[in-house]
Amino acid sequence: MTDDLLKNIISSKSTSNEGVPKITKIETQKRKGRYNIYLEEAYAFPVDEAILVKYALFKGMEISDAFRKELEAEDGVRKAYTRALNYLNYGLRSEKEVRDDLAKHDFSDDADEVIEKLEEQGYLNDLMYAESYTRTGANVGGKGPRNIKQELKKRGISEENIEKAAEQYPFDQMVENGIQLAEKVIRRSSQHSTRETNNKVRQQLMQKGFDSDIITQVLEVVSTEKAEDEEYAAIKQQGDKIWRKQAKLKGYKKIQKVKSSLFQKGFSGELITQFIEEKEMEDQNE
Q1: Which pLDDT value is given to residue 15?
Q2: 128 within domain boundaries
Q3: What's the structural domain count of the chain?
Q4: CA separation for the pair 19, 191 (Å, rounded)
Q5: In terms of residue numbers, what domain contains 131?
Q6: Residue 76 falls within a domain, yes or no?
């Protein structure tokens, strides 16, 4: 608002009714666009600049109790609306997220009116939010579709909008994301058996929200099968640690404990036998 307009509003005159308090001062707050209203020289209430202009408030204007309540109620909505806009400045939000933020800042009573206004202005759209969230989860996060749907549900998105938004995540992209995740798991599994690597790939894909049909497709593309020398290198890494850990045991008890541990880690009986025979020979030669 220009200084001239504010000056004109404050300096205007009106007729008076006896007993009705008048505005004696309109004071600019430090916060931009906010004003303090004084009635009969005493601070009464604050208003937003938009309300000051809308009702043409001026020094000497009479403010009845009913009119004051109207101004304060509208100012509450205005503050809630401003809070919601500030929250939306940080990124797209769902209706539930905006409502939760308004409640957190004690604006629950004005939430319905604010939400309606934001939707009319195009600032709030749950379907648009869900589609954007789905694309980001697929393109940046590499999340599985199930996890994305669960996150949207937590954010208050309806089942209908969740299903519509799922169209933003095509099946081929799900498989591609699953392959990339599987390859990362395989690279980190050099010391694990083929069976354990396969289990880890499946577990990781499930935890990330990929369904069984996607996992099946992924495992048809990537291979968790290790070459013979890789499998033996893996059992050596795992087995040496277990062998040392069971150093206090001797003979049959030690062998059975090591066998059991390696079998649980997915190594074949033949490979376990080969490893133990070599360890026994090492111990005899020491």
Answers
A1: 45
A2: yes
A3: 4
A4: 88
A5: 103-168
A6: no
How far apart (Å, rounded) are the C-alpha atoms in residues 144 and 49? 48
Token pair for 225: 């099968």
The answer to whether residues 134 and 97 touch, using CB atoms and an 8 Å cutoff, is no
- What's the pLDDT tens digit per position in 174-233? 999 999 999 999 999 888 999 999 999 999 999 999 999 999 999 999 999 989 889 989
Per-residue pLDDT tens digits for 221-243: 999 998 988 998 999 988 899 98
Asked if residue 178 is part of any domain, the answer here is yes
β-partners of residue 62 are 22
Pairwise CA distance, residues 30 & 52, whole Å: 16
Question: Would 79 be classed as within a structural domain?
Answer: no
Number of neighbouring beta carbons within 10 Å of residue 67: 13
